[in-house]
Amino acid sequence: MGQITAELDKKLLAAVEQMPAFPRSVQRILELTRDLACSPKELVQVIETDPVMTIKVLKVINSSYYSFPKKITSVSQCVVYLGFNTVKNLALGIAAIGILPKHNGADFDVEQYLLHSLSTASLAKLLCGRVGHAGLEPMDCYIAGLLHDFGKVVFAQFMPEEFSAALALSRQENIPLHLAEQRMIGADHTVVGSMLAEHWQFAQPLVQCIRHHHSTNVDTGVMHACLFLANQISKQMRYGDSGNACIETPSAEQLRYFGATSLEEVIPSESEMEKVLLEAKTFAQLENA
How far, in Å, CA of 203 to CA of 45, rounded? Predict the structure, then answer.
C-alpha cells in the first residue's frame, strides 16, 4: 500500500474519533486490564455497576453454548466458573457488539459482518488453545477475531460512498477487499481498524494484530497466526460475510505454529466447527438483546 496522504490521514482520524466510545464501565475494565495488581473482585464490581452489561454477561453464561448444569446468577459466579480473563474479554466483546451501528450508507450487511467476526473470534480462540502458547490466553485471540474487521464498520459509517465502491470493485474483479479499498479509498480497513483500536486504548499486540491481519510477510506471533488462519477458515466455511470472499494463502511461518503445511490441515473437526457456529450465533443474538 502506498503512502497515506496527510489529508487522508486527517479524514481517517476524524472518522475514528466519531465512533462511539465504550461505556464508562468498559473503559474501567480496560484500565483494570493494564493494572497487574487488579483483583477479580474489582472486575466483578465494575461489571455489576452496569446493569445492561451484567444482564448480557449472564445471558451468555447461561446459554446452551456453555451448558452449565445449574443457572449462574451472579458475575462473581461467572468468574469462578470461567476465570478472570475470560469474563473480562466477554465484557469487552459484548461492549464491542453493543456499539455496532444498525444502519449505514454503504448497505454493508452488519448482521453478516457480525457473524463472520464472531465465528473468526471463536475459531481464533480454538486455534490458540490448540497451540497452547505460554503467555497468550485464548480469549485474547477471541477479541482479536472479534475486532479484526472493525475498520470496515468505520468505512461503512463515515465513508460510505468510497466503501461501497470498494465492495463493488472487490466483487467485480474477485480481489480481496483490502486491495479494493486501497484503490478506491487510499487506505484499507486494517489501517483504520488499528487506529480505532489505539483510540480505544487496547494493548499494542492487539493493535498490531489488527493492523497486519492480511499480511503473510509480517510475523507478529501466535495471535497473528491464529487470527489469519481463523479468518480464512471462517470465509471458507461461509460463516457470515464481511464483504470479502477471497481466501488468502497462509505463509509457511503461520502454518508452522500448527505443524501444518496447508490451511486444510488446520481446519477443526466437524463437531468443533458446529460448536464454533453455535458460539457465534449465541453472541450474535446479543445485538438484539
Answer: 22
Contacts of 80 (CB under 8 A, 6+ apart): none
Return all residues near 99 (Cβ < 8 A) that are at least 6 apart: 19, 20, 22
The DSSP secondary-structure symbol of 216 reads S
Confidence category of residue 188, pLDDT binned at 50, 70, 90: very high
Task: Say which DSSP state 243 is in.
Answer: S
Q: Which set of grid coordinates corresponds to residue 41?
A: 473482585
Angle separating helix axes 177-184 and 160-173, nearest 10 degrees: 130
Looking up cell 488453545 gives 129
| pLDDT score recorded for residue 228 | 97
Q: Which tens digit of pLDDT belongs to each residue from 128-154?
A: 999 877 677 788 899 899 999 999 999
- Residue % of the chain over a pLDDT of 90: 57
Q: Residue 82 CA to chain centroid, in angstroms? A: 20
Q: Among all chains, which residue has been given the C-alpha cell 461461509?
A: 238
Residues 6+ apart with CB under 8 A from 69: none
Residue 286's pLDDT is: 66
- The reported pLDDT for the residue numbered 162 is 97
Amino acid in the structure at residue 70: K
Query: Using CA atoms, how far apart are residues 34 and 192, in angstroms rounded to an integer?
Result: 23
**Quick check: 2 pLDDT over 70?**
no
- Which of 204, 282, 289 shows the shortest CA–CA distance to 34? 204
Nearest to 104 by CA among 243, 233, 256, 221: 243
**Residues contacting residue 203 through CB under 8 Å, at least 6 positions apart:** 33, 34
SS3 content of the chain, % helix, strand, coil (to 5): 65, 0, 35
How large is the angle between the packed helices 40-48 and 84-98, nearest 10 degrees? Answer: 30
Give the Cα separation of 85 and 147 in Å (integer). Answer: 17
